[in-house]
Amino acid sequence: MHRPNWxxxxxxxxxxxxxxxxxxxxxxxxxxxxxxxxxxxxxxRLGVQLFDKSVRGYEISADKLRIIxxxxxxxxxxxxxxxxxxxxxxPLAGVIRLTSTDTFCHVVLPPIVAKLASQERGLSFExxxxxxxxxxxxxxxxxxxxxxxxxxxxxxxxxxxxxxxxYYTRADAPEDHWIGTAGSIARSHITQKLHDVLDSMxxxxxxxxxxxxxxxxxxxxxxxxxxxxxxxxxxxPTLVRFExxxxxxPVPVFVASHIDLADAPRMRQARHxxxxxxxxxxxxxxGRSAVTA
Length: 293
Hints:
This protein is α/β, with parallel strands linked by helices.
């Protein structure tokens, strides 16, 4: 069997990154037919079908994740050969796809990934912001940063910090006006318990949102009291924190990968660096603002 060279894998990885043959063609500066031919050729030589083709595009077959990650490590190594002689931690290179909540993607992660990318010339990041859990088995992301009390069985990672959650309001907002949660953030145990208590208090729900960023903006507009991650609420110049009706424990923040890729050296190193950076922000994540009467 003819051994495919590195150039063959470039086409496969480009399709995996972009999710389509046309996207890979644009990325590589070749035509559509060339990408199809090169991908089909490497699949034939390896004797496997690497992609599931659907209306959503080209997705990695779940049982082929290890092959794709091995190819991505080759890609990273090719770009880092001259830097491997450096003393200390091996360089991290290539594209790391991160998924997290809108709070983390907008407030917490940008300075972290900017610093990491500045330290490694061949490293870049994709941030995928969603409050729902992506299926990492489909290679939608490499690493997920999630506030949760327990990781799903298909994820493996480490706890990096705690996320404080508190109650915030504009000082002049009516005490009986509240802003509720919707969508995926409304399904947590904390928010469900809070909603039950608010129902018994007969308060007025003036609005609801499926994003903590939107909840903060609504609270800043004076629409009422709401629940926010402290890293958002403490940063607001117009909101004050108060003692709410339900006690809220800090939520662990995990940095994890799909269990099939957890031991891949590049994934381990990416998780370690991100977790270390989050640990350095422990105070701001936990929240240190004073609670008003």
